[in-house]
Amino acid sequence: MSELIQKIKMLAREYLVDVVSARRHLHAHPELSFREFQTSAFVQEKLRAWGIPFEAGIAGTGISALLRGKGEGTRRALRADMDALPITEENDVEYKSTVPGVMHACGHDVHTASLLGAARILHDLRSEWEGDIQLVFQPGEEVLPGGASLMIAEGIFEEKMPVAIFGQHVYPELPAGKVGFKSGKYMASTDELYVTVKGRGGHGAKPHGNIDPVLIAAHLIVTLQQTVSRWADPAIPTVLSFGKVEAKGATNVIPNEVTLEGTFRTFDEKWRKEAHVKMVQCATDLARSMGGEVDFSIEVGYPVLHNHEGLTAQAKQRAIEYLGADNVVDLDLRMTAEDFAYYSHHMPACFYRLGTASPDGTSAYGIHNSRFNIDEHALEVGMGLMAWQALQSCV
Q1: What is the DSSP code (8-state) at residue 334?
Q2: Known catalytic residue: 141?
Q3: Domains of the chain, earliest start first
Q4: Do 114 and 270 contact (CB within 8 A), yes or no?
């Protein structure tokens, strides 16, 4: 095993310059969810050059490639997402985004470049492992319904279901060279809430002649916050947040309606469904009691991300073998969400974090920030550890 680790590390060092170049190309040419046309073409070009067979056009721009080892065995899968965010980059770097208003602020350029590097390493070492390894380059992680669900629905695992799937995500809270794991429930489900409160608008000086949707909306926000905190089991983390409120009135104009947009997140699928019903009923009753009406729409999003306990324990141990115990940490629950969760509901899955912070603090900004960047030495770990994880039960 240690000999194979050394071979992987040697190739990771050898290919680092190329993987950094790939990451910088992707970073300079970001594309929004489900529009990753150039990104997909770039990945296909690399796979084709290395002689790795693939199928493209899955869920629009997604790619599934297959590496075969020296004999029969189990199938493992590695996944990377490819889409960027609608953010204007403020970094002053030579590979700054060339696309106005679009940026790889969540590190998907890192994920894609790392998987390309891992693919090349595994392809070079294919005579040293058995079975096969599926490479999933996924579109649309940042928006519902999520590219993972669509690629699964289009049958990327129908030929042969992997016994495990691994994904990694940049983590600026950790220095480059370190990784983190969390077994069991790790990331929350996420649902989008769209509420229209309907009243009867009119002059602000004559509220008695109106049905004020602004007042109803204000009560609704407070009531839902209070009631969700009372309905939820305290042992189940739950978050309800409204981030957008729009009332197109004026200082002296009460509008006819107010729209609200928010998010609901939790860690229990049964409670999640119950909460949906309760929120709609509460909003309907409250609006009606104040003379108004409400349209309450819930766009059901990603499920809870569950890291398989046995697989994650093995993955953590293999990370220790690869990086040393001092470079492997335990993580806490996160209320953020990831569509990798869909894979975790179909097969044993492990989603871990890749440290990306630099020692000098130049990459200290968090994800989804206009100044997010990484210490590119993280790419060496990113590709090498992915390759090593993929060989679980294959060597």
Answers
A1: B
A2: yes
A3: 2-186+303-390 (3.40.630.10), 191-300 (3.30.70.360)
A4: no
How crowded is residue 242: how many other Cβ atoms within 10 Å of its Cβ?
A: 17
User: Would you say 179 and 316 are in contact if contact means Cβ atoms under 8 Å apart?
Assistant: no
Chain centroid to CA 118: how far? Answer: 20
Q: How far apart are CA 169 and CA 160, in angstroms?
A: 25
Question: Quick count: other Cβ atoms within 10 Å of Cβ 34?
Answer: 18
Q: Could you please report the per-residue DSSP string of 41-90?
A: HHHHHHHHHHT--EEEEETTTEEEEEEE-SSS--EEEEEEE---BS----
| Dist CA 85 CA 107 (whole Å) | 10
pTM, rounded to two decimals: 0.94
Name, in order, each residue with C-beta under 8 angstroms of 211's C-beta and a sequence gap of 6 or more.
199, 200, 290, 291, 292
Distances (CA, A) of 253 to 202, 205, 208, 257, 258: 6, 8, 13, 12, 13
Which of 177, 105, 100, 95 lies closest to 366 in space, CA to CA? 105
Query: What would the pLDDT profile of 289-347 be if each residue is shown by its tens digit?
Result: 999 999 999 999 999 999 999 999 999 999 999 999 999 999 999 999 999 999 999 99
Q: Which of 31, 36, 81, 83 is catalytic?
A: 83
Annotation says 83 is catalytic = yes
> Which two three-digit tokens encode residue 337?
């969400």
- Catalytic residue (choose from 36, 81, 109, 141): 141
